[in-house]
Fold this sequence. Notes:
The chain has helices at 17-26, 66-77, 118-121, 134-148, 153-172, 190-204, and strands spanning 5-11, 33-37, 49-50, 56-57, 82-85, 98-101, 106-110, 126-131, 181-184. By secondary structure, the protein is an alpha/beta fold. The strands form three sheets. Strands 2-7-1-8-9 form a five-stranded parallel β-sheet, with helices on both faces. Strands 3-4 form a two-stranded antiparallel ribbon. Helix 4 crosses helix 5 (153-172).
Amino acid sequence: MSKPLIIGVTGGSGSGKSHFLRHLLHRFDKSEICLVTQDNYYRPGDQQTIDANGVQNFDLPESIDHDKMLEDVLALRDGKEISIVEYTFNNPKAVPLQLVFKPAPVMIIEGILVFHLKEIRELMDLSIFIDATELVKVKRRISRDATERGYDLEDVLYRYEHHVAPYYEEFLRPLKSSVDIIIPNNSGMDRGLEVVVGYIKNHLKP
């Protein structure tokens, strides 16, 4: 099996990465694309940095087990199947799944810090930044964290103000000048989606 096309997708929390990827994957057969999500590589809660008010901070680079993620990405690149346990962000209502990933002609690596580790970043053939305004992102974050992660509104807003927003400015915003494609996503991203779909389809041509 030849080496896959590797695409990196990042953007601030609430920018719409998951929405973009759902629509992207819908355009291809499951055997054509393998999606690796950084969220499943967060370190356990008891290993996360605790801020001055006793709240776990998931927005620091050290929150992620980058070494394990790199190991799995390299295994997939080399044609090996991997298996990992889904990360549930300490949500007691969520039952973690055993996730199995199979090699594919296209690999997508997504997450807020996927470009942080040089060894992973240098594997990418195409880098994409999903962008949105702060107001749009915080509204999406409130909706997601309440339903998927079991956080109440006060907790969501605290994390956004003290963790998400400042670390976006430090670690993510500087990346916008170096990525291959920036896709605005305040109200829709159809044009950007079509560009990426076309790029992948061209790569998959026999």
